[in-house]
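Batch job 17 of 40 flagged for manual review because the log was empty.
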Amino acid sequence: MLNDVNINTKSLKQIKHNIQKYSNSPKEVKLIVVTKTFSHKSINSALENNVYDIGENKIQEFILKEPKIKKKDKLTTHFIGKIQSNKVKKIVSSFDIIHSVDRIKILNKINDVSASQNKKQKILLQVNISNSKTQSGFNKNETLKISSDATKLLNVELIGLMCIASNTKDKKKISEDFENIKKIQKQIQKTINKKCKHLSMGMSGDYKEALKKGSTFIRI
């Protein structure tokens, strides 16, 4: 059963304040409210509070909520979960931006499905910036090559990179992870794809560090 929870306006105000405080380009930052395990009522609450970007991890869950969402035309939907090959068709149909493209097989499947749906799907490549064995994503060298491959595809639009920082309380290490992915993104934008300008990094526990290093999508 999904939870019916209204958005916490006090927390929302604080997050918006922190975006202004820590980001060098606050107008470019989008707050993605992660609504997994929460019902359509929570999404509608976000919309009522002028939060128009929501993130979901499971396509099956979102499909149940979608018909009950109000002001859907104002909503930008972000898929941030692990992508299963057999769910790509539904994900492409339902989401504006896919953050978690972590395998070449998935990249090509998204391109093929998008072509069949007459759509150019916006994507981000997931980078395993901490080289963790428990995390998905491309390493640095793979990311550069895959970004070039993605740029040549006709039905995907590479708009940035996504990462999850090291699972540690060491803020210095977390900041290093964010700084390293920023360098990769800048290299891609300069030499491969000018549209690769976004960084999806920073969650509830580390979004301030992410903002300092140039995050444009924070997932909270």
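Reviewer: the log was empty due to a logging misconfiguration, but the result itself is present. Residues 96 and 197 are 17 Å apart (CA to CA). Unflagging and moving on to job 18.
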